[in-house]
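Hi team, as promised in this morning's meeting, here are the two structures we talked about. I've kept the exact order from the run log so nobody has to guess. The first one is mostly here for context; it's the second one we should focus on when we meet again. Sequence first, then the predicted structure tokens.
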Amino acid sequence: MFTGIITAIGEITHLTPKGDGLHLTVTTPANYLDDVAIGDSIALNGACMTVTTMQTNAFEVDVSQESVSKTTGLNQLGSVNLEKALRFNDRLGGHLVSGHVDGIGTVQSFAPVQGDAYGSWKLVINVPQSLAPYLAYKGSIVVNGVSLTVNQAGSKDQSECPIEINIIPHTLDHTTLGKLKAGDHVNLEVDLIARYVARMLSKE
């Protein structure tokens, strides 16, 4: 389990095919791996991965074909948001996150909020219609591993459901979200509780 609070920005520096999946090497800031052991879970852009090999400031993971096909950003070199797995005595600063990506959204727009002296940005993402029932005003969603609050959600009946999210300067400075632009794809995970409630209310 995770919280959606990013603890570092890493860099996928090596990427090689392994079976029908991929083998990644991810570099980290100094001392980030001091409390990590082989077999531990670390989320990369919101996707939970198992550490298979460790170096001083880098770790390696195997990404299955299933994970490659259901996520974005893990099949290319570049920056990724990192979060270590939640411990039972940790603070839950974001919300309960499983690290299992539910779908891929597309950035519609990302721009500064006009008239906001604080420096916030408005992020609009087109979410697949299949995830729309789990979205609600002031509800939670994970975007590339970051726990965020939905400020506005579109209709559940459209082919895509646009959502609006406010991004504060701290989040821009400490995650990779500040690099997003229109047309980019992002990993999405809906609220865990909403998913279970929907299942319980379903007639299927």
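And here is the second protein, the one for discussion:
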Amino acid sequence: MTPPATVDAGVVLAGVAAGAAPVGLEEVPELMSRVDHKYIVTADVMVRLAAELGDRFAVLRIAGRRQFRYSSTYFDTPDLLTFRQHRQERRRRFKLRTRTYVDGGGSWLELKLNGARGGTDKHRIPYDDAPAHILTGQALDFVSDTLVSRLHLTAPDPLGPVLSTDYRRVTLVDRSGTARLTCDSGLVCRSGDRRVAARRDLVLLESKSADGRAVADRVLRGLGARPVPVSKYCLAVTALRHRRANQWLPVVHHYLEPQPPGSGGDRPPPGSWW
């Protein structure tokens, strides 16, 4: 008997996006300071979620597109300081990345901060004039000044590229202007010649709102989904570098495709950040 074909979450999301009313980028709330909740759901749950949300949510459309490819490069110290701070659940911690909006256009250097209040603050500067895997002097000054002023932390030195991620995203926007829901599929993480991908039938959702009580969170809980406290960067480091992170292993095993034997070691190539 032939096994059933795997449902492609990206195709399902394209259908969800096609059925929603469009909004322009200028109508999407920035929410640079917010509370985030992440969920990993099947394509079937995604369809039920979209039906429950109904016309309360619209979909971001730019230049006729409703689904966009994102490419990010994450930076860390040689001993993975920011990964360790997240693993240890430090109250003051950060992540640093460049993000390229492959379809929507533009690149940014983004610094995501977690502070004592438990929320997330994102700070960014345009980064169109520099390679995505390079930190310029201006970038390092931005990181240093922001960490000192916002978290009273000294920027670690050195910082270099550790891994990259690529995925496709559909963004659903609460018409009230108080929240949005990003829906990601097709995640691929790379570090040097090592690679790991997410399961094709799963969607990574991130509910972003000012107070953490968005309607999407309520609907997801009603559908049996529960938040998972994890990031793409930490998942990728755990899987590609085989770093100890017991709290994330259930998500790694559920969300990411199994890696074939000999697909990667626990250290980057000699003399390379990657």
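Starting points for discussion:
Confidence is low (pLDDT under 50) at residues 265-272.
Residues 49 and 220 are 7 Å apart (CA to CA).
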